[in-house]
């Protein structure tokens, strides 16, 4: 039996939308990929980013964020590991900023569905965000159907958002601008992602 209401799910989606609009490593990576590789090559990566982000909602619904609260070192360890991964991604973007655009017939390295999942799982902060929002919007006792409805809302919002990013940033006008300033855009994206990674590592 489902106890959550459509209004509660709408409120949940309304809180989630502005939160994912805030620029983060996943949005930067999806945009840079769409600029460089186009829509068709970026969409699987974008869907991986969306699925990876939604998994943090599943983690919260399963109560696994209690591990972070009862054993804070687990959150710290995950933050450091995720920060190292983001810093590595940022360094790769910076290092290869001068490289020519990849041939469409060649592979795209980490720009895959699972590459997107990995990137969004590298930052554990969304788990705490989802946990806080779930506690504030929904009743404490959730049925299995409630959890399925909540997760379905989260994954739908994430999928729509990242699909829109991949499609919009792959349009001719932003791609032309990217081609004209590839070096600086890649360097800027790499720097931002690297700094976000360092923030995860250094934050107490």
Layout of helices and strands:
Elements (H helix, E strand, L loop, with lengths): L5 H16 L3 H13 L1 H23 L3 H6 L1 H24 L17 H9 L3 H13 L6 H26 L2 H9 L1 H21 L2
Helix pairs in contact: 1-8, 2-3, 2-8, 2-10, 3-6, 3-7, 3-8, 5-10
Can you give keywords for this protein?
204 residues, mainly alpha, 0% strand, globular
Poorly predicted runs: none
Terminal CA distance reads 42 Å
Principal-axes shape call: globular
Number of strands: 0
Provide a count of the helices: 10
Biggest sheet details: none
Taking all residues together, what is the mean pLDDT?
85
How would you describe the overall organization of this protein?
This protein is an all-alpha fold and 204 residues long. Helices cover 78% and strands 0% of the residues. It has ten helices and no strands.
Task: Compose a concise summary of this entry.
This protein has 204 residues and is mainly alpha-helical. The protein is 78% helix and 0% strand.
């Amino acid at each position: 039996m489902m106890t959550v209401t459509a209004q509660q799910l709408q409120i949940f989606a309304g809180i989630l939308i502005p939160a994912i609009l805030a620029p983060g490593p996943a949005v930067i990576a999806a945009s840079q990929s769409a600029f460089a590789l186009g829509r068709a090559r970026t969409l699987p990566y974008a869907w991986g980013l969306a699925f990876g982000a939604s998994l943090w909602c599943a983690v919260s619904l399963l109560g696994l964020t209690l591990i972070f609260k009862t054993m804070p070192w687990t959150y710290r360890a995950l933050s450091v590991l995720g920060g190292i991964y983001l810093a590595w991604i940022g360094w790769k973007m910076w290092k290869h900023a001068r490289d020519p655009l990849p041939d469409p017939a060649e592979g795209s390295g980490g720009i895959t569905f699972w590459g997107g999942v990995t990137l969004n799982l590298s930052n554990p902060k969304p788990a705490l965000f989802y946990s806080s929002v779930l506690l504030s919007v929904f009743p404490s006792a959730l049925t299995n159907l409630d959890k399925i409805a909540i997760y379905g809302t989260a994954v739908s919002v994430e999928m729509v958002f990242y699909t829109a990013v991949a499609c919009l940033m792959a349009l001719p006008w932003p791609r032309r601008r990217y081609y004209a300033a590839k070096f600086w855009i890649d360097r800027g994206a790499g720097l931002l992602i690297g700094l976000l990674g360092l923030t995860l590592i250094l934050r107490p």
